[in-house]
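Continuing the batch. This is chain 6 of the set; chains 1 through 5 are on the previous pages. Same settings as before, nothing changed between runs. Recording input and output for traceability.
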Amino acid sequence: MTNRTAAGLWKPKCKQVQKMHYTRKELNAIGETALEDFRALFCRTACGDAAPLPFPMPIDTFAALYLSLDVRYAPLSRDGNTWGVTAYADTVYHPCGAPKEACMELRANDVLLDDSFLDPLREKQLNARRRFTLAHECAHQLLYHLEPDEQQRACRRMYAKRRAYSFRELKTKEDWNEWQANVLAAALLMPAPEVGTVMDELSPRHRLPFVDGQFTWQALDILDRFCACFGVSRSAAEIRLRELGFVHDFAPQPVQATSGAVRPRAFYSIEE
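Output for chain 6:
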């Protein structure tokens, strides 16, 4: 059972709100609960019945309709290291290395994504990164609204005292929050039950062989089909599949060279 804040944001029952640091298992449960709520509210058949959650998961719809976030695009950094930022209160964002006149007004529940995602020459290439970045910012908002009300008020007061924030100040209080947001983002884009179903179909052996930092070409083909199904990058998929136990690490075996023999390349490194 869930309820909603005044802003329309998802929030679990009060007895679940008193915790600020969550385990991986708890973050997965939060993601599953949010997705089930989203599905019940916005995924309907022509007859009005609840429909299965579509995949790739519609993270843009989730952000706009379910979390009531205003997602916009803007140049966030000159070095390309800042992909997204979110605000919990009205403030001003100062892009790293940019002059003061480049500051941008942010309202509570705003999300800014770097405008490089809109480059028509790279839009398809960067779509998986854009989706994970948006899911990461959604996760920050979900976790913020899970905090006790007094903690939320203290956070808003802190932002109200100053008028300009860097990316790191605005986005997080500590690295633990970033880890939590990454885990929850993966749970939103790649829910454990759906991952299991897809891997049952894609992988006859169920677990992907990984040898000395490389996948076999058969495993890489499965991984690419998995990425297409969930709209994620190879690196994000590998991390999630490892977390759920679908990657089997093999110790490298010594290879004895034979004269005139060429060993075929059967392994490939993970890249974005």
